[in-house]
User: Which sequence fits this backbone?
């Protein structure tokens, strides 16, 4: 009987256990998974705090798969992926976080900044504008979005950039970068007084701001305030010896203020001290320009030849090189260089620049005894620029050389009509030739 009772109790217990185990088991499993996930989350957060993003990424990916509707995990994953260089995955994670929490500004700002940095300007603009308009977002975060918008709009939409910058400053304290940006925007708008004041404020806040220093020097030079520009840049150069930005700007100012030899000395000194600066094509080109301006044309031609050998697709560079060859009287070489330059019409900065290069080719061809080439170049020039005294005179002597007397006479008269006594030698030649041509009819 006892055995039967024991068996009944055992069976009842087993039955009860069987009845309860599925629910209890599921609850226990869920609790266990939750605890494990929380533990991984703690580990991931600790890795993020330490800057160990490589370790954080796989942990956050696993958590994102387990909790696909958790915006915080998606945002953290994007943050970690961006810092490990996986920008495409970071973009997806930030987008997911924004979709899951539309009123949360952080992922939108992060996505906008990432898009801006990777060249997706239109999408960046949209994300940042949305974040900046979120009144519930922290002021500092909205200001960050507005500053990023101002940076995006600086070139194409400077008026919008100024408004965005002003809004940012209302939301948070003005920074030295804000001052520098406001100065650049004022300069672009032609507000030279505001720009100068802003650059001086930027330098007052941060005397080591080389960018503001160089920009102020450039702004003063554009106003022909060369002495002020030189003083500021020279002081900057003492504080930052051989700084390439300051050296380049000061050399440019020397060139503008008709002190090319001082610019040449500065550039040569810096090139000797800094091999990287010596290898910089822009610095070499500036030295070539100053050499040419100082009459050191052989040195200039040598520098231009090296630059042209490395970059034969820059027509403006070739045009400068040809001009130096003209000064040296190397007409065949000059004509060849100008011919290469004008063939790249679409690569010139403006149609007027191309037309001027055609003028240069016409002059070189004329001196190289190729009047037909000169006339062809002058005809092409005339499709963009009106005739000038120089172009009329070149036409006249070219027709004269080809014995096209009627056209030569017309061109000589056209030249004399506009010369106005400013070209005495050429005017004398034109009158002399008109007299001579009258006798050939």
Assistant:
């Amino acid at each position: 009987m006892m055995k039967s009772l024991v068996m009944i109790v055992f069976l009842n217990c087993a039955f009860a256990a069987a009845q309860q185990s599925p629910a209890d088991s599921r609850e226990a499993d869920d609790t266990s998974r939750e605890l494990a996930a929380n533990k991984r989350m703690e580990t991931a957060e600790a890795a993020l705090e330490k800057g160990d993003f490589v370790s954080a990424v796989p942990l956050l990916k696993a958590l994102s798969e387990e909790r696909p509707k958790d915006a915080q995990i998606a945002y953290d994953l994007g943050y970690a992926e961006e810092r490990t260089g996986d920008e495409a995955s970071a973009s997806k994670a930030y987008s997911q976080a924004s979709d899951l929490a539309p009123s949360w500004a952080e992922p939108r700002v992060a996505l906008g900044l990432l898009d801006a940095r990777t060249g997706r300007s239109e999408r960046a603009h949209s994300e940042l504008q949305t974040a900046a308009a979120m009144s519930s977002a922290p002021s500092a975060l909205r200001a960050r979005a507005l500053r990023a918008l101002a940076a995006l709009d600086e070139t194409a939409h400077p008026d919008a950039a100024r408004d965005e910058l002003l809004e940012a400053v209302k939301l948070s304290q003005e920074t030295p970068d804000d001052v520098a940006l406001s100065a650049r925007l004022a300069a672009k708008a032609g507000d030279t007084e505001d720009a100068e004041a802003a650059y001086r404020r930027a330098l007052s806040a941060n005397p080591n701001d080389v960018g503001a220093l160089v920009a102020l020097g450039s702004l003063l030079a554009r106003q022909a305030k060369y002495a002020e520009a030189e003083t500021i840049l020279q002081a900057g150069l003492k504080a930052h010896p051989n700084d390439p930005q300051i050296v380049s700007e000061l050399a440019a100012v020397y060139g503008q203020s008709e002190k090319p030899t001082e610019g040449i000395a500065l550039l040569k000194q810096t090139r000797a001290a800094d091999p990287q600066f010596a290898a910089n094509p822009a610095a070499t080109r500036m030295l070539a320009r100053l050499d040419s301006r100082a009459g050191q044309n052989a040195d200039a031609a040598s520098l231009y030849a090296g630059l042209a050998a490395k970059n034969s697709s820059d027509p403006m560079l070739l045009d400068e090189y040809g001009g130096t060859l003209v000064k040296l009287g190397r007409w065949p070489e000059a004509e060849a260089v100008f011919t290469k330059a004008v063939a790249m019409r679409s690569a010139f900065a403006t149609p007027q620049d191309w037309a001027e290069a055609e003028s240069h080719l016409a002059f070189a061809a004329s001196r190289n005894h190729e009047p037909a080439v000169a006339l062809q170049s002058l005809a092409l020039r005339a499709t963009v620029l009106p005739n000038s005294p120089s172009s009329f005179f070149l036409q006249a002597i070219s027709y004269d050389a080809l014995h096209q007397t009627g056209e030569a006479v017309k061109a000589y008269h056209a030249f004399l009509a506009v010369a106005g006594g400013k070209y005495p030698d050429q005017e004398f030649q034109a009158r002399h030739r008109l007299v001579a041509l009258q006798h050939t009819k």
Summary: Confidence is low (pLDDT under 50) at residues 1-18. The two ends are 154 Å apart (CA to CA).
